[in-house]
Amino acid sequence: MQYNEIRESKEETICQIKPINSDSIQLRHKRSSLQRRSAVRLVYNHWLDRKISQYKEDQTTLSYTFCAKELAVLKKTEEYAFLKEVDSISLQQSLRHLDQAFQNFFNQPKKGFPRFKSKRNRKNSYSTVCVNQNILLSDGYLKLPKIGQVKVKQHREMPESYVLKSVTVSQSPSGKYHASI
Fold it and tell me: pLDDT tens, 77-106?
């Protein structure tokens, strides 16, 4: 396999995540990544539905803070207890993305109305933010919350002044994982 894919812009670097040789670790990583993307999609779609019904009812929309507080309550229920196993920051990021999509729609209608996320979407990804060094990039490994260390192919060293703020992990249709740092 070739690991030579890297794209650069002013704000981000995209590195390919190498597969792990140990079958048990690879299976745990795949299961965790699939569960995380499913949970992020579920949270996004759940609150998109709630926002639509709220707007139809009385022409108001639910704020991010209201949704985040309700998410904390929802995670304590038996039906949605599996959300505790997923990184809470990635779930909050999906709410932020939804809130931003609604703001864009109302401020710039050309952007279009937010759509429900599909399981069959070619772009499977989730984002998480660095809080208290829960994400680290060192010695060819990327530490992700609730997953652990994953080997990455870094094509160049990051400068010492580099500050890691967020990571978006995505899976291409071919099954390869990429981390946008």
Answer: 999 888 888 888 889 989 999 999 988 988
Contact in structure between 167 and 179 (CB atoms under 8 Å): yes
What is the per-residue pLDDT across 14-37, written as a single tens digit (0 to 9) for each? 666 665 443 333 434 455 556 767
The pair of three-digit structure tokens given for residue 40, joined into one six-digit string: 């992020």
Distance CA 181, CA 179 (A): 6
- The residue with tokens 């981390």 is 179
* Burial grade of 35 (CB within 10 A; 0-12, 13-18, 19 or more): middle
* Cross-strand bridge partners of residue 147: none
The verdict on pTM exceeding 0.85 is no
Among the residue ranges 27-36, 41-50, 71-80, 145-154, the one predicted with the least confidence is 27-36
At residue 34, the pLDDT reads 64
* C-alpha to C-alpha distance for 7 and 12, rounded to whole angstroms: 8
What does the alpha-carbon distance between residue 19 and residue 140 come to, in Å, rounded to a whole number? 13
State the DSSP string of 51-120.
HHHHHHHHS----HHHHHHHHHHHHTSSTTGGGGGS-HHHHHHHHHHHHHHHHHHHH-GGG----PPPTT
Segment (H or E) for 13? strand 13-17
Greatest Cα pair distance in the chain: 55
* Amino acid present at 156: R
